[in-house]
Amino acid sequence: MGYAVECALKASIAKQTKQYDFPVKNSHKIYTHNLNNLLELSGLEEEHRKSSLARPDFDLNWWIVKDWSEDTRYSFDITKDKAEALYLAVADGKDGIMPWLQKWW
User: Fold this and answer.
1) pTM
2) Percent of the chain clearing pLDDT 70 (strictly above)
3) Exposed (0-12), middle (13-18) or buried (19+): which is 42, by Cβ within 10 Å?
C-alpha cells in the first residue's frame, strides 16, 4: 500500500511536468520513497492541509500512512492489525489517501 501511495504522489508530480521539461530543477529529489517529501514535491501540501482540517478521518489516515518506508516490508514487528490499518488508511472510499490522491494525477 505504501508503494501505491508513493506512485500516486509521483504521478501527481509527473502530471505537473510538461513534455521535455526533464530534468527539472531538483529532479533528483523525486527519487525517494519518503511520502512526506513526495507530498511536498507534489505541491499538494495546502490541499492536504485543507483536507486534514475538514476531515479528521482523512488526517488520521495520513498519520497512519506517512511514516511508511520501503524497509517496512522487511520488518518483523508488522502485525496483522497494523497491516490492516495501513490498507484501510490508503483504500477507504470516503477518507482514504488513495481516493484523495486520484484527484491530482
Assistant:
1) 0.88
2) 94
3) buried
